[in-house]
Amino acid sequence: MRDVRLFTVVAALALAGATVGAARGAAPAWHSVVPAFERFHAGGSPSAAGGRLLISALGCTACHAAPEGFDAAAKPGPVLDGIGGRVYAQWLRGFLSDPQGTKPGTIMPDVLAGMDGRQRGEVVESLVHLLAGSVKSPWKSERVPVFTSAWTGDDLFHAVGCAACHVPDGSRFPFADLGRKYTLESLTGFLLKPLAHWPDGRMPDLGLGLQEASDVASYLLGRERVKTDDVTPVPRFEVDRRLAGEGMAAFGSLGCANCHGLRGTAAGVKGKPLASLARKAEGCLSEQAPAGSPHYALSGAERAAILAALADLSPRPAGEEISLTMERLNCFACHEREGRGGAVGESVRFFTGDPDLGDEGRFPPRLSGAGRKLTREWLEKVLAGKGAVRPYLRTRMPVFGDRNVGRLAEGLIAADAPAQKETAAALASGDVEAGRVLMGTGGLSCITCHRLRGRGALAMQALDLVNTPERLRPEWFRANLLNPAAVRPGTLMPAFFINGKSAATHVLGGDPDRQIAAIWAYLRDGKKEPDGYPPPRGEFELVPGEKPAMLRCFMKAAGTHAIAVGFSQKVHFAFDAEKVRPAVAWRGKFLDAYSTWFSRAQPPVEPLGDHEQMLPAVMPLAVLGDSRAAWPVACGGEAGYRFAGYRLDKAGVPTFLYRFRDVDVEDRIVPGEAGVLRRTLVLRGGGEGLYFNPGQAKGLTVRVLRPQASDVPIPVQFNGGKAVVEVEYQW
After folding, report:
1. 681 and 560 share one domain
2. pLDDT per residue as tens digits for the range 74-84
3. Which bin fits 161, alpha (ψ -120 to 50), beta or left (φ > 0)?
């Protein structure tokens, strides 16, 4: 497991620097961090575009009205209803007293900056009593699952997209000590519905399920093993009603209600319009805020950029509005558009997917010309989180909410100026049957690389073409087929039309325009399957008999070195010989061997049965300093395992053989009663500090039968150089 404490250490150092600096009257060690500003605008001359980004991200127009056409509408701060049931009162006290010291990099201003120590303390206390007393949440509270896994949360955090923004290197949102703010339950609730808590879209919805959100929360809080009885709510705070009343008055007079939603409050404090502000660093922009003015911890570059933007408040073209939206929501952390953005630095290695597809199978798509490529309806679908077509990407497309991206689809289309409708008219008359032939292996063989209507491709598994006419603009579709490399630099898609000639000269006379129109027509209206697919699933079904059936193959769930084992009891599993662990189990029918025996491309084998269940992803053995140490996330050879094959007993059951450090392991899995799988590991060797971890997986019940233990990981005790561990998997 990556060291959870890294985040805490970074935050603690930042906190120490900020606190010491404040005590000595020096500038704080941290300033407000807006990631896209740090990446694109912090260096060089002051940028008006950077200032517009800051005016939007910092919520300046919540108090200072913007002129018409100036696209920097006020972005609401976190909703505070029910906050007393979500965060600790002590954290609230610290954050209100010292925003940057408690949460380095926050964009929250110090609204009490102009007060003396006594007055400041009194106002902080009154606000704490107001906010901590708001415990009734407007959202349904989800109960944390019985078990959460920080190891799984670690993997999710670094795979689904969290690490694109949250990297503790100072340029992106750093973490403070989240355990001082949230309980496991409240952080889980936030990760499930971030837009309900933070409607400005700074924290988007990554579509985490309850188990996933709990696992990620467990990882972020450094809770390596959590059971139900470990989960406690935020302690109830004894509210002084007099102080809470004073806090309500302060909440209004300080302008908190201009940004934050809280029952019983309404925005009231208004400053001068942006157009009337002086073009110098005073008021909110001053290095030392005067009495009655909030203090923003701005860097010199940030302050200069805002002043540059105030000097030019004129409307901007669609392209700049798009850039502003993408910068404010940090879309450029994942996506590249017009030569800007894309993954950089430490986050690059966290983008994973299908290695067979190269960078296209790993990184989110480029957005250069997105309005020329995608229909408006599909763009809106994608932004609403309903247009995913790349299941091979582990990174998820976040949902930012319509209020934050509602104009983005329209803006992309306007900025990219798509071609007229002549191409659409030309494609409308395509020959459906000719398109079917071209799609198959007797034509251009599109099905070799692309999935179609959910059916796997013959080789690599590029995106499904089923919704192409709904998704793509006809003119982009045509240009992409004529010259893929020019439209999508770096793509693996080959060119089928060289020097105006088709590779399939026997279809429609080899005319590229007619062939492209035919493919479009087939994807729009065709029903009959292209030629070239293998026979229907099950024609070469392997049926286990008295002895188990075995097949070495390629499986999505068990990798390129899968060894599938099927039993007559209709319970089966596959062992990943590369990662050296059992990977997946299922019930019912076993496997269809056609693709392994007869297909040159050898597409992945999929179980014929049902009730498919992923088995624990963690490796079973590790050497630890003590039981509290983090369990390693590496697997296979990276974790010190060496696969040594398998042997068959008289009944034909395989025992997998491998070595972990100085320990030889025999790993045998067989069906038990009621459709369970029973796994027995015989360990020979020895060594200090060896522990066993049975692991967890969603939908799976894992029972350790031997040795009996109340907690995991379990220390391995050798007797005469031998130890035995038994585990049962039920799903």
Report:
1. yes
2. 678 999 999 99
3. left
